[in-house]
Amino acid sequence: MQIMKGKPVCGGVAEGKLFYLKRGGRQVLRVSVDDAAHEHERMSAAREKALNELKALYDKALPEVGEQGAMIFEIHQMMVEDEDYRESIENIINTQSVNAEYAVSVTKENFAKMFSEMEDPYMRERAADVRDVSDRLINCLAGGQGLTGPETPAIIAADDLTPSETVQLDKEKILAFATSGGSTNSHTAILARTMGIPAIIGLGESLAAEMHGADAVADGNTGELYIEPDEESLAALRDKKRLADEHKALLEEYKGKPNVTLDGREVLLYSNIGNPSELGLVLQNDSGGIGLFRSEFIFLESEDFPTEEQQFQIYKTVAQTMAGKRVVFRTLDIGADKQIGYFKLDKEENPALGIRGLRLCIERPAIFKTQLRALLRASSFGKAAIMFPMVSSAWEIEAARAALEEAKAELSSEGVLYDRDIEFGIMIETPAAALISGELAPLVDFFSVGTNDLTQYALAVDRQNHKAERYCDTHHEAVLRLIELSAKNAHAHGKWIGICGELAGDLSLTERFLRMGIDELSVSPAKTLELRRLIRELDLTATVAKTAAQ
Ligand code: PEP
Ligand code: MG
Question: Could you report the per-residue pLDDT of 267-319, keeping only the tens digit for each?
């Protein structure tokens, strides 16, 4: 048995034979030509053929992946006709007296390099599209046929897959995709997700053509590819597959449906993430937004303080990808269990009660400012909200507000765009914040209850201490009443309230939360549809206050 690890881009487990895609491996030779006009004619015929193929691919993709997914083939058509791209090919033929294939191949490398060096991650991804379009043209010049896939359903493996290859293959014959290269935001990954086919990318060199025909299992949830799995692993994977299939059925039944109870109460169902690589899961599970973006993971994964620009690029990707759906960015929540060497924090006797979350940001204003500027800049690319963790007093909110206003003023004077109406919220994670939520509500736009910490602080049980687990009753009335009080106070001031701690996904509490008037539940993306199913089955006969949330 061999287990390879890559990046998961679409969940699900598939078992079958591995089919390693072999392309013609067309080699492009540099041939000197006397008749440039003839090369231009060949080029124009190839362009027409490529355009027809791309139109056909668009038509094939449309029912399979929808307008959004199929759009890539319209973009490819535009690339074929792009003036700069055409001119580059023509100039190379004219100035170097070479064959059209060679001119396309040089243009491909030049344009791909140019895209891959761009700052915008979306534009960088376009390098793969230029390669795809150029290879199609080269293939058309050589009168080539399309690629041949497997005759019976199989796990498709390849060094990389272009969007056109992904769509061109017969969907009925694809159990999963597994590639050596690729990136999570590439169109191939997006298409795989749209088709709902388990997919793993970035498996590296160990995925080899020699594996063609081997028995394999692709786990699109973990990103693991098993070659010739042993009995024990196979049994565990089949179990997982059963669960994954059930989830898929859920997806098919509940995707696109509103989160409305039988008596008409609408609930916002959002996701918790800590990294843009999880955005695929958020979209795949039809989440309505992001209720908690744990920004500290950017800092935890970094060797030194991430710069404003680095942070901005990440927040922008998240805001842009969510395309107008609300993204609640939580500011840095370092300290307690999340320690970072380069912060050089003082050693504390009780770090969970020390300088953590917003307290740390108040103590280290420069770090705070950098993050707030980056978040504000990203806010003009979507619907962002900023949320502050670990609040216990009103003055801390005022300090956070002052820092935000300072960052806004700086950006305004620099002429940098940001959302002037960006929502400002706090987490309810301390009993103090819950108890004085009536005084805190007028200072903010929303509350989000961090039940993990609220439980820890209300019950005085260290959330990290396994030995104390029996003292940590997550359904403890003390915690539930603190949440209820916060909801009552939020609504009394016309503010919305969500829950983003683990308890939000506890199905045995959903009804109670909704009866309290909780407006939003933010859970791990994979929980979304289960929760939606339950919400749609609930009937809240008691009257529950409607709120300002939307
Ligand atoms: C919480 O405390 O419930 C929460 C969501 O924050 P974290 O788990 O990141 O502390
Ligand atoms: Mg917390």
Answer: 999 999 988 888 988 998 899 999 999 999 899 888 899 999 999 999 999 99
Residues 497 and 481: their CA atoms lie apart, in Å, by 14
pLDDT value for 550: 42
Residue whose CB lies within 8 A of the most ligand 1 atoms, among 294, 298, 392, for a mutation test = 294
CB of 387 closer than 6 A to ligand 1? no
Q: Which pTM was predicted?
A: 0.64
Q: Write out the two tokens for 59.
A: 């038509």
Decide: 178 and 7 in contact? Cβ < 8 Å: no
List of E strands, 117-237: 154-158, 174-179, 199-201, 215-219, 224-227
Tell me how far the alpha carbon of residue 94 lies from the centroid of ligand 1, in angstroms.
63
Structure tokens at 452: 């993990």
Which one is catalytic: 10, 76, 140, 187?
187
Q: Computed from CA positions of residues 382, 314, 286, 184, in that sequence, does the dihedral angle turn out positive or negative?
A: positive
User: C-alpha distances in angstroms, 196 versus 64, 88, 190, 273, 530?
Assistant: 10, 38, 10, 21, 17
pLDDT at 145 (0 to 100)? 62
Using an 8 Å Cβ cutoff, are 104 and 137 in contact? yes
